[in-house]
Each structure stands twice: as structure tokens, then as C-alpha cells.
Model the fold of this input.
Amino acid sequence: MKLVMTLLVRDEEDILDDHLRYHFAQGVDHVIVTDNLSVDRTPEILAGYQAEDRVSVIREESDDYSQREWVTHMARSAFLDHGADWVVNSDADEFWWPLGGNLMSTLAALPPEVGFVRVPRTDFVPVADDGRPFYTRMVARDSESVNALGRPLPPKVCHRGHSEIEVSQGNHTASGLDLEVFEGPCPIVIFHFPLRSYKQFENKIVKGGRAYERNTELGPSTGDAWRNLYRLYQAGGLHDYYQSRERSAAEIEEGLQSGTLVRDDRLRRFLESQETRSMGTRLDRLGFGPPDSSSATGRIKEA
Done:
């Protein structure tokens, strides 16, 4: 089986490398990336993975957030150019977490009549940016996640590879396959980290909001949560919104006690274990042997 991921990015330097190394560790074979006008270190990070032939990059110069068109193109390329059996359509702030095995084995185990899986998302709450990686700081998530309009957070879709697949705006649904949508408890959940710092959040909302305004083909209700946040920015209220979402240590503890928050450090432990393995490989090459056995190696099995 071959598993290919599609990824649409714009200025994702704070999370992109973690996103890629996580999903490669979960069994993803290749990632097709559309880089839409990034001006930070995103192209440099992608170039490193390109050199290893693990990532293909499409440079998209349009500034109208035609996500449906761009992702559909990548999803079809995943099948036609890379032979994908399954395609995962992701954003950089989404980490697809299998409840057993890895991502590839989970999708490979689905019955042949299943062509689509709608995967629920759960938001991790923002905390003060103290310079540590987001996954180290953000280890509490909502027990029930909603979007900026207070509506239940919609799922994302992955699907079997096909030349006629059509992915919707937002990657929430797909069509073009005469197969079933998976029913029953989903074997995957998406860990979602949309608010990692105010700087990152404002940049995303401003550039995305302006891009939506330029798109004359999408109706005004498409991307309504994003558009609403952009209007809030224009009115001078985006920073207050972000601060209302950010949680202090005391507020997180209160949320854990009340049940509105859930402590979940599985991604932190996974990524730290990957860092340790990588460090061990580098030390072995230098002749220093493996890292100390008391380190994070092997913690993935505890998740």
C-alpha cells in the first residue's frame, strides 16, 4: 500500500518540519505540497525534504485561496503520479493520530468498499508563547471543540486514490468515488493546533481573509469562520479574541477539573521520541553510541 499526503501551506515555519517528520513516522510515503506565497522559512524547510525526494512542491502564485482547486489537483496527482492507494488531505496545523497501529496500517485495514473516512478534529488550547515548541507547551485540548462561530468543529476527509477525485473547500468532504463513507467509531482523530502564537495567528487570518475577499467564485458563506475573524481584525478585535482563547496554567487546571479540557500529551511524547531517535542516529554516526536509556526513547508505546 502507498499513502500520500497533500498539504497546502503559507508561512508555516513554526510547525512545518514537525508536521512532516510526524507523518513520515506514521507511514506516509510522500507529501505533495502547494506552497502559496510563503515569505518565511517554509520554502527552505521544504527544499530539505525535496532533496531527499520525500516531498514534491508546487508553487502557487495566485492569492485568492482557491483551496478546492489546488487540493483537488494535488489529490489527483497523488494517484496519477505517485500511485497512492490512500490520500490524506491535511493542513500544516493538523496531526492525524491513529488510535492503533500507525496511519498507514489503519487505512490499509479498512474494508475495500470504504472509499472515504471523515476524521474528527480536536483543538488544543493556546498558552503563552515562551519560545518552546508548540507541542511542548500545548498539552490540553477541548473536550468539545467548536470553530470561531461557535459551531461544532467540522471533520476532515481522507480517501482512496482516484483520478477523478474532487475535494471540497476546506478539505471537509470529497466526491468522485463510487464507494462508501466509513461508518462507526473513527479509527483516527486529528490533533488541531490553530492558535500557536498571536503573531502566527494574525498572519494567517489577515492573509487568508484578504485572499477570500479576492475570490469571486466562492460564495460568502464559504470560509465564513475565517472571514468572520478577518472582519474582527479589521475592527481591531482580533488580539482580544486571541487573548480570550489563551489559557493560563490556573485556567487549564480549572478546565481539567471541570471537564471542559482534557490533558493529552500523546503528540508531545511521540515527537520527543522521534527527536531522541534522530539524535541517537547522529551520535552513532559520530561513534558516541545511543543516548541514555532514561531518555524519551520508546515513549511512543505509552501513548
Remarks:
- The mean pLDDT is 91.
- Residues 266-302 form one domain.
